[in-house]
Amino acid sequence: MKGAEALLRALEREGVEVIFGHPGGAIMPTYDALYDSPIRHILVRHEQGGVHAATAYARASGRVGVVMATSGPGALNLVTGLADAMMDSTPVVAITGNVPRALIGTDAFQEADVTGVTMPITKHNYLVQDVNEIPRVVKEAFHIAATGRPGPVLIDIPKDVQLAEFTGSFDVRLDLPGYKPTLKGHPKQIERALDALEKAERPVLMVGGGAQHAHAELLAFAEKTGLPVITTLMGLGAFPGNHPLWLGMPGMHGTVAANRAIHHADVILAIGLRFDDRVTGKVSRFAPHAHTIIHVDIDPAEIGKLVRTHIPIVGDSRLVLKELLKGAKALRLAAWWRELEEWRTRYPLRYKPRPHLQSQEVIRAFHEATGGHAIVTTGVGQHQMFAAQFFPVTRPRSFLTSGGLGTMGVGLPFAIGAKIARPEELVIDFDGDGSFQMTLQELATVVKYKLDVKIVILNNGYLGMVRQWQDLFHAKRYSEVYLADSNPDFARLAEAYGIKGVRVERKEDLMKGVEAVLNADGPVVAEFKVYHEEGVFPMIPAGGAAEDMILEPPEEKEEVGA
Amino acid sequence: MRHVISVLVQDHPRVLNRITGLFARRGFNLESLAVGTTHQPGLSRICLVVSGDDRTLEQVEKQLNRLIEVLKVTDHTEPHVERELCLVKVHVAGLEERLAVKDIQEAFRARVVDVAQKSLILELTGDTQKVNSFIEALRPYGILEVMRTGAVAMSRGDRVLKVREKKEAV
Ligand SMILES: Cc1ncc(C[n+]2csc(CCOP(=O)(O)OP(=O)(O)O)c2C)c(N)n1
Ligand SMILES: [Mg+2]
Question: Which residues belong to any copy of the Thiamine pyrophosphate enzyme TPP-binding domain (chain A) (predicted)?
Fold first, then answer.
């Protein structure tokens, strides 16, 4: 058996069913072995699409996503996606070919120092030098990717190693003496946390992406205590977006209720989040009244990194919540809830209705038509924030977006990965005209595998989020954000791929458009021509605090046609 | 504040890259770095001198611990021995200078390890402060070259830097 075959065997032993990838010279031996393998391969049209799809596959399924690429350019095309998976703590294993060992370091054809390049954007990486190491490396890679704080792991395998005769064993043990994630929270700290919550007058529970797998325990704990729950962008769906205890999303484009709750809170229980600056604003002004911050995270390095923490709990959010639940009591929070309720009813998410079709109403219409029962993916920009605001998902692993890295272009490949992970689900990609064009080549992948994904492009003719910042902070000097003069006809573009295209331009056609998308038997690309100068609100300007929240567009200018 | 940190690592290729890369990326201040093998096959020991406030140091330690190949990190705040080795090539024009340099050498208990017509190489072992003073003392005579190893450190007494025992199976 050759190294390539051993590699696939090792992957099978890890339970891998799908690999997203793109072949090339240095990975050809593995592709040759793949020809006889039961593992399904999804051929993408750009390696970036592959790594994003693997990321979404992982996030939607809770399993490890796998992507494969050739050396040099192929592997380097993974860089953005690996960084994205790293920032959003997603378990991905990337396998790359490299030039034969004898040529490494000689600037050989399609050689790149891929382990060097990806060192800071992977949880760990390997350059396999010995064919018999393949089973151990694969086992370790999956273990590292999926345990502790999940993240991407890259395995770089020189071509001659793939071709070498394998004489080793698959019965291998992990050799990771320096890797022992702490899973169980410290009982003393858990006790202290419960005590602090019991004494609190204005407590809040904030949860992030690290609680997606702990949704059941989270729900039970929240209901038992009656704590108000705030979910970050990555935490959306970890707690049902239609639950009376839910206050919405915090941060730059979060709800008034969520941001005010944090601002006035005396005790904050934060679970599986890392206090990103889009959540905290200026850290020194974050949660100024909180005398106790309890931070639960599996990564000790996140605790105290940005925000002062009074009760650190290192552990798996699920296990910690289980322990918290054991000692949880119904808290007396009536007065606090009266305040929260007041903010919530007084400042719901809203937008100024306009004669033009608007992104918010498009998303809301899809939410109503589906009952929120879909896996949503997004690009990055205004449409992403509108999706977070107006498509409150109710189930975990169902809002897939690029949080930490803010990677434009993930929408379509995320939809592909999600659909492959959970084919029975309705998958909707709310995308931007800018974002979509960064990875639209993956429409071919949609066609090739007959993936029923609904791509909803909120075409505002602009790099809208950048335009919004120029509007607010750069005296409306719209530098290089105009797309409408050169955007394709998205519906016809779809048709060129053999995908159903839909175009909606007028407000009165909204419902018809939504139905056309949802009733279509198969994939759809639907372009909704939306108002071009919309802004996302509420907004806390970068580096600001809850008190600096802008609720509405500063002043309305006359409206010009889109 | 200056901190001396010992790190026990698996001596895999690039492990040093991971550590220096981490420092560069997170903007930690690295004053010196010394590395060598240990008595245990497969393990290397690195000594880092880092400056920063308490919060930064906490991050340095935690971020180092995140690296898969790092087995143990210790910030030497306890009583410890710290040494570095320094070679200085100093210009000595005439007999007078040679004698003056010899005085300095004796005062610091340095050794002469090479003698040439116009220069000497002196070897000194000591803590960083001592090495600094030594170099300053020689400076007026015309230093031609300096090579320092960077600090190495070890806890005093019975405390030993060793692999933490297995906490729990994952
Ligand atoms: C790859 C990448 N390049 C640049 C940016 C900066 N950026 C953030 S939002 C945005 C505009 C996105 O435009 P579009 O996809 O049309 O979304 P809209 O804001 O208009 O809804 C840009 C350029 C980014 N996040 N990612
Ligand atoms: Mg746009």
Answer: 379-527
pLDDT, tens digit, 9 for 90 and up, residues A171-209 = 999 999 999 999 999 999 999 999 999 999 999 999 999
Tell me which of A77, A385, A465, A467 to substitute to probe ligand 1's pocket, judged by most ligand atoms within 8 Å of the beta carbon.
Answer: A465
Q: Are A111 and A72 in contact (CB under 8 A)?
A: yes
How do beta strands A92-98 and B29-37 pair? unpaired
Q: Is the CB of B13 inside 8 Å of chain A's CB atoms? A: yes
Look at domain A187-346 and name its CATH class.
alpha beta
The burial of A494, by beta-carbon neighbours within 10 Å (0-12 exposed, 13-18 middle, 19 or more buried), is given as buried
CATH architecture of B80-150: 2-Layer Sandwich (3.30)
CATH number for domain B1-76, candidates 2.40.40.10, 3.30.310.70, 3.40.50.720, 3.30.70.260: 3.30.70.260
Which CATH architecture best describes the domain A3-163? 3-Layer(aba) Sandwich (3.40)
pLDDT digits 0-9 by tens, A519-541: 999 999 999 999 999 999 999 99
Number of H helices, E strands in chain A: 22, 18
| pTM higher than 0.90 | yes
Cβ distance A95 to A161 under 8 Å?
Answer: no
Q: How many CA atoms lie within 13 A of B33 on its CB side?
A: 11
Query: Cα Rg for chain A, rounded, in angstroms?
Result: 24
Other beta carbons within 10 Å of B13:
9
What is the secondary structure of A515-532 as a DSSP string? HHHHH-SS-EEEEEE--T
Residues of A in contact with B55 (CB under 8 A): 304
- Residue A342 is which amino acid? E
The interface predicted TM-score of the complex, written ipTM, equals: 0.93
Q: Identify the residue whose tokens are 């903007």.
A: B27
